[in-house]
Design goal:
There is one protein chain. This protein is mainly α and 86 residues long. It has three helices and two strands; from the N terminus they run αβαβα. A two-stranded parallel ribbon has the order 1-2. The longest helix is centred in the middle third of the chain and has 14 residues. It is globular and about 35 Å long. The chain starts with 8 loop residues before the first helix and ends in a 7-residue tail after the last helix.
Length: 86
């Protein structure tokens, strides 16, 4: 399990541990402008949802995205285990 770049996994998990240890309400995962890395952000969000106690919050960029695309993105997040914790 790692972010987009497997070589970045140790630093990624070290950062996640520091975040979790600070006891935030959530961990925000975002992607580049215009959704350039939507798949990678979803994969990281899914990893966090399955493996850390702090819920991930998926930041969605909707500018220039159709309702159908947004619906599919939200469905993909739900299918990967991301839930609203409120």
């Amino acid at each position: 399990m790692s972010p987009r770049n497997p070589q970045a996994a140790p630093k990624f998990w070290s950062t996640v541990k520091k975040l979790v240890d600070s006891r935030p309400n959530f961990i925000l995962v975002t992607y580049g402008a215009a959704g350039q890395d939507r798949r990678g952000a979803r994969a990281v969000t899914e990893i966090l949802a399955r493996h850390v106690p702090t819920p991930p919050l998926a930041h969605l960029t909707c500018v220039g995205t159709s309702i159908e695309e947004i619906t599919q993105i939200v469905t993909d997040y739900l299918d990967s285990g991301v839930r609203d914790e409120t």
